[in-house]
Description:
2 copies of one chain form a homodimer.
Chain A: H1 36-49, H2 53-56, E1 62-66, E2 69-78, E3 84-85, E4 88-89, H3 90-104, E5 107-119, H4 124-141, E6 144-153, E7 161-171, E8 187-190, H5 196-206, H6 222-230, E9 235-240, H7 245-257, E10 260-264, H8 272-281, E11 294-298, H9 303-312, E12 328-334, E13 341-344, E14 350-352
Parallel strand pairs in A: 5-6, 10-13
Antiparallel strand pairs in A: 1-2, 2-7, 3-4, 5-7, 8-11, 8-12, 9-11, 10-12, 13-14
Amino acid sequence: MTKGEGPSQKPSWQMTCPISIKDYPKITLAHGAGGSLTGQLIEKMFLPMFDNPALALQHDGAVLGFGNKRLALTTDSYVVQPLFFPGGNIGSLAVYGTVNDLAMCGARPLYLSAGFILEEGLAMETLWQVIQAMKEAAFQANVQLVTGDTKVVEHGKGDGIFINTSGVGILEHELLIAPQSVRSGDVILLSGDIGRHGMAIMAVREGLTFESAIESDLAPLAEVVLKLLDARVKIHCLRDLTRGGLANALNEIAKTAGLGIHIREESVPVRQDVRAACEILGLDPFYVANEGRFIAFVRPDHAQRALQVMKSYGHNAGQSEPQDLGARVIGVVNAGSSGIVTLQNKIGTRRILDRIAGEQLPRIC
Amino acid sequence: MTKGEGPSQKPSWQMTCPISIKDYPKITLAHGAGGSLTGQLIEKMFLPMFDNPALALQHDGAVLGFGNKRLALTTDSYVVQPLFFPGGNIGSLAVYGTVNDLAMCGARPLYLSAGFILEEGLAMETLWQVIQAMKEAAFQANVQLVTGDTKVVEHGKGDGIFINTSGVGILEHELLIAPQSVRSGDVILLSGDIGRHGMAIMAVREGLTFESAIESDLAPLAEVVLKLLDARVKIHCLRDLTRGGLANALNEIAKTAGLGIHIREESVPVRQDVRAACEILGLDPFYVANEGRFIAFVRPDHAQRALQVMKSYGHNAGQSEPQDLGARVIGVVNAGSSGIVTLQNKIGTRRILDRIAGEQLPRIC
């Protein structure tokens, strides 16, 4: 039956699935972990299917024309377990995570939507705590939550609370902030120490105890990005270090830009308690998720100015006073090894920092 | 600990939950069914918490300033079971459902986001079929899917596929299309026969068989709304008849507008097979969900022009040729009985058409 011939909507399902059903008959946790299997879904299924210029940029959100302005649109679903963790909860995460994706597009976050999928039997008090955290986070990030939706699924068909937030922001500059704008020679800056969000979650899940709990780095990133733009820093690309951590972010950008990236390992700050927790669990902090850290690719002659701004406007979760979270220059872009990220250690040895294949840490965000 | 005193983000959770924990200790399926318990969540918890003018309109989406234009932003999560039903599937539903909410704001739909929550073990082929249906629906509705997100949860923590879509549209007129614009004397038009989507789903779930399957009325509503605007019809309010059906939509608008609504029962078209299925299952078609039907509140002297447009630009799912789906004038707004919807039957008897309390049909969208 072709279009218009009958009442039933039947898309052309004869097309063969672009992912081998023989090799991957079913969705696995790794398909949602932000590594190469997530990449396969995006590159083989989603991008060719919904082919358009905004999606093709493969950035944290889409930058779109609207009247004579540009807007950014982004979406994320949050399925973190446990719902409450040191430094935040699924509500504050759902607000800051989407605000940060708008910031990574170079947009000023304006409006959020919220879609809740609740599991039958969820304690009303839990929902109330999550809602209050969302309000507080929206206040901190200076965004308005303007529309929403609530669905309830039967007990055993969900997991307490899932939240989707989508965000709209406005671009108030002329830059194209995306992997495609990265150039050989660009300097790469990191906004602070890495690995805290993932290890805060894992420490709770695994029952690890330290002198004091590892708190998530969860925080809004829009202010520091807007300050970089105010300072007229020529930003080529921004990326927050969520699923797959620093390693994944660098690999994605190197691949999309078709350039090489070189990082000095010792310049990447990792807190001692985070490093200890990673060692206990056999994890590499370069691959652990963060929710308040980002990398910036800037023109070399703007790197020092950018670093000053990043040192001056960092935020920890729940702290309204800006501070230096350990912002550093961590590496450079080169034209040599297209799509490859190399890591140089203290004694000068270089190794390739690969993209992770499977799920290191499921349900971290 | 107050803001700024420590690293932990602790909102003021001392506030008492505005919904009685004693009466409603847990979330039930009825909280997601679009009836009075959903209304309680919205009115007692969400609206006061995220208080802002856009949210206060209580419409299908938010209308927001952006530069010198107005945009509409809307979000919906789709949790329908079964994933595939006569006339559509969760993919086409996720596109048309959100397109329709933008249309109900009087907006031209432009951009969609898609957030997937997949259950571990989902067949790759199923995902592929859903993705293809989304592409086909986006083409039919003339929107671009520009950004997305995929999460995977463990087997038993989800239910195959949940999809959130958020939509952005542009307003190309000066009207405020919202319940607050409804006036006494407004004529109420209905775009076609009611109850098909809900009964298409229920017939599959309950194993009911008819001579031919009841197909969902799922279809995009943007074209007919844009044609109404082109024809300069003074539209006061639009509402699609999803969860809770016609009865719920009328009650929500009557309540928000603070006016009475009077409907002639015999003017509301219900197909014979839908009526039969409703009788078997003990359901009232006035409360059954639709996914391609809407009501329009218009100035009385514009009603005939509006009816002509609605008869000329109706769509059934999968049919590209517009047709008359049975558009009718079904009632009027009056100043008498604030917030009350009355139904008059063939012999002139009047009764109140209440809002439904619990879940008539869970997971219908």
